[in-house]
Structures are given as C-alpha cells and as structure tokens.
Amino acid sequence: xxxxxxxxxxxxxxxxxxxxxxxxxxxxxxxxxxxxxxxxxxxxxxxxxxxxxxxxxxxxxxxxxxxxxxxxxxxxxxxxxxxxxxxxxxxxxxxxxxxxxxxxxxxxxxxxxxxxxxxxxxxxxxxxxxxxxxxxxxxxxxxxxxxxxxxxxxxxxxxxxxxxxxxxxxxxxxxxxxxxxxxxxxxxxxxxxxxxxxxxxxxxxxxxxxxxxxxxxxxxxxxxxxxxxxxx
Length: 232
Known about the structure:
Layout: E1 4-7, H1 13-24, E2 28-33, E3 50-54, H2 60-71, E4 79-82, H3 100-126, E5 132-136, H4 152-171, E6 177-182, H5 199-213, E7 221-224
Parallel strand pairs: 1-2, 1-4, 2-3, 4-5, 5-6, 6-7
Helix pairs in contact: 1-5, 2-3, 3-4
C-alpha cells in the first residue's frame, strides 16, 4: 500500500492507531497533532513513514501552516481522514443545564474544523490517486436512529458533519469518494475503559474498508467500521 494519508487528531486514540495501521502497510502518513508536545509514539520503527504535523483544526493559521508542511513533502494526498473530535465536559447535561460555551467549542472542533481542513487540503486531495475523504462521524449523529435525550453538543455536531459529508459528496462527485464513518464505541480516552471495541482492531478494519471503498466512485455513504450501512 503506497498511499499518502493525512489524519487529524492523530496523537492518541483512534487517530494514533490509524497512523500505525496505515504506516505498517507501507503508507506515507501525515499525522496531524494539535501540539508538538503531543507527539506520537513511533517506537514500532515506522518513524520513516510518519511525518508529525502540527495541526489545530480550530485555527485557520494552524491549518495553513500544516498545508505548507505537507506540501513540502508531497504534491498530493490520496486519503484525508478527519478524525479530530471532542466530547465536552458537560456533554451529559440535560437541556436545563447545558453549557453553550461547550456547545460552541464542540461544533468548532467536530464540525467546522473538518471543513477548514478540507478547504485547505482539497487541491492536494484532488491530485491524489483514487482520492478519498473520510469524515469520522458517529451513530450519535443519526437522526433516524436517535434514542438519546441529551448529549446535545456531540450528537448535533456529528449530525451536522453528516450533512457536510452529503454536500461534499455532491460537490466532489466523480472526483473524490466521500464517506461518513462510525468507528464504534472504542476503548480510548474518549470512549472509556468499558467500551466494546479495541481501537487497534477497529483501525485495521477501517484501513481495509478504505482500501475496498476506494474502488467505488459514488456516494455519499454513512457506514460503520465493518462497512454496514447506517441511517442518516
């Protein structure tokens, strides 16, 4: 696999395991991290295939600098994975006590942040081979399957991300394959120790899913890490 892959939110959790999974298959990986102090563990001996790029998705300036850094290494990328996301401290509050500062911050990271990255990197992605844009979403963003009565900021931010996936699929039809991907409930800092899925195994599933989906030309699609379709 000689892919050129950019992954945001790559310092930990699913992002870090995706970096390792792609690099282990020979891809050149650009690992976007918010701070250079949150560098990746490259002890697996794949540092030659991983370039750590400072990338704060809430900052226009940071995204622009990241573009310059990646462009200095490659004229194109084949896969862009918008993985950076947060769950706010007040995510479980009911409507009476939600924190609107947390809501705004969540939307900036989870919804607007991916658009910043896409806008900046789209010229590189368009020059890629069978290019693919993957927005890491969540079943929490499915309106049809909604069962929660709170988590307003997280669920709404992912529903909005799904809409951006649909819009981008329309705009980029015939140029870039666009997906919304639900990775599942993972044992990460965000998902917690009681989550159902191992992030390393899920990352391997996602890498294989991206390989399969890259042969298709149409979308949009909202699916889980095993390729099962989810309702919007």
